[in-house]
């Protein structure tokens, strides 16, 4: 299986870590490649950002389909362009938010999302509502660290993640935790271990890993999006510019 990961931002410095995170989550036999959109925003932290990058996500999805990829993951918790892309390509397209929220809802009655900024709270609530799991969303707790600053002090970011997850369990009655930014990918197991050391036994979900494994399952089962839900729209992006940066 060939999984194409679309980096829906113009920040190319994330690409090596993105590739490593998805490769670590993938099964043997899955090849992962990353494509970065050539225009848009450095990070996606608002509905405006999502709107700006979506046309480029659609173009990148078409390119992945044309190149023979088997599935596409869009590497952002707002899942920008994911549902629109299902109308322009014939291969499965999934975002980490949809995958991780549905997974969390199977592992506990209530889950919390650990996001990066307070204004993301409403965005995550909107996502939970869109995916039909809003009644299971216990809370959205914020790190209060902008996306582009998450790696400035990794130890402080990790400590804050653990603290917000602890608060979600103790105060909001969460029974599962979703890391609410793909910039936090690769740390779910460590956060879960830190909570277990405090006697808090809840699953902590890495959104990138959830999307990877769900896509592998969809492909292995020979499934794709419903054509009733996502009727195919072809030709609408044929006039868009071609350039993509691949790594």
User: How many domains make up the 3D coordinates?
Assistant: 2
> What's the CATH class of the largest domain, please?
Alpha Beta
Main pleated sheet: 5 strands, mixed
Averaged pLDDT: 92
What class, by secondary structure content? alpha/beta
Catalogue the unreliable spans.
243-247
- Spatial shape: globular
- N to C succession of SSEs: EHEHEHEHEHEHEHEHE
CATH architectural name of the largest domain: 3-Layer(aba) Sandwich
Alpha plus pi helix count: 8
- Rg over CA atoms: 17 Å
Termini Cα gap: 18 Å
Arrangement of strands in the largest sheet: 4-3-1-2-9
Percent of residues in helices comes to: 40-55%
CATH topology of the largest domain: Rossmann fold
Number-wise, the strands total: 9
Please provide a written account of the structure:
With 247 residues, the chain is α/β, with parallel strands linked by helices. The chain folds into 2 domains: 2-95 and 209-246, Rossmann fold (3-Layer(aba) Sandwich); 97-207, 3-Layer(aba) Sandwich (Rossmann fold). The chain contains 8 helices and 9 strands. Mean pLDDT is 92; it is low at 243-247.
List keywords for this structure.
247 residues, alpha/beta, Rossmann fold, 2 domains, five-stranded mixed β-sheet, globular
